[in-house]
Amino acid sequence: MVTNAQPRVLVVDDEPQMRKVLADALQSKLSQVSTADCAESAAGLIRKGDVDVVLLDVYMPGASGLELLDQANRGKWDAAFILISGTPVMDGVISAMRLHAADFLTKPVRAQALHDSINKAYESLMRTRESRIYQIGLETTLQERSRELQQALVLMESNYSETLMSLTTALDAREHATCAHSYRVRAYTSYMAELLHYPVEDLRNLHNAALLHDIGKIGIPDSILLKPGKLSAEETEVMKQHPVIGEEMLNNIPFLRPSASIIRHHHERFDGRGYPDNLAGEEIPLGARIFALADTLDAMTSSRCYRESPGFEAVRSEVSRGMGTQFDPEIARVFLEVPERAWKGIREGVELAYESNLWSTSRQAESLRAKLQLMH
Prior knowledge:
Rossmann fold; 2 domains; 55% helix; two-stranded antiparallel sheet; five-stranded parallel beta sheet; Hypothetical protein af1432; single chain; alpha/beta
């Protein structure tokens, strides 16, 4: 934008004598006054950005002043227009106002009235320009802030992923026998959540909870956690504390806090005989009820050092028996409708990703730890 102490005025009139009279009247106070004898010549000067205020005769051969003003409106030309006529008619005045003319003057025009009209039009034009510059600056600032926010979100996402990775690595270092268990359970849970139309805004929290459901086992003594045989009653009670420990751990990590409730209740039963709080039915968070099926599926289709995998048919039998007792019957019904090949496909995909993303990360630790990442 060109900012001038005085407006640059263009006088457009097909009569040479009138152009001279108007130009002479303006040049007594303004230093930048130019003239044009038709609308076509004026249009070229205005489009170049050399004009602030246009004194425009309404009736001229060729394109009229109103036609030029209409062209200026459609082209969003950066100038103010004052229309002048020796024989004004009401329709012409109304048309000028509709086309956003700054003023409409009648010939002959008194010098003071001419200067007042030009000054008023120029002040209005400058306010419009300032508003436009402000809006452009605002939009630029918003774009810059949006880019900064996006960069921050990317960084935050990276930090979140690293936190999840560290927690999963720490758990895997304690309980090697589970291998990709947490990743398979997350994939099964995610698939079930999609079938059950789980709230989209809560999916991230559910995924995190499924991945970290056993994180509380970090607080269980090795003598119990890694015991190859059956646990005693006392040891079982200690093991039952891992959902509570897991909840406490996630509550200390702000972005994981929304997942803490699901982790606390992932061992509850639909009939209220689970732990740690003996919740029943819909008292149990929906995510935990979905997770119960996914966890059972993975546990029964994975071999352990103390038993072979019972297989998919055994899973179906177990879920059928547990409908309404261990499992939410509606969720169990949806689970049983999923063909075996779908579950096997999910498992194979997870294990392939697990193997391809397994690498050593702990140079400073006493022993190497496996670090896992499942790319979506």
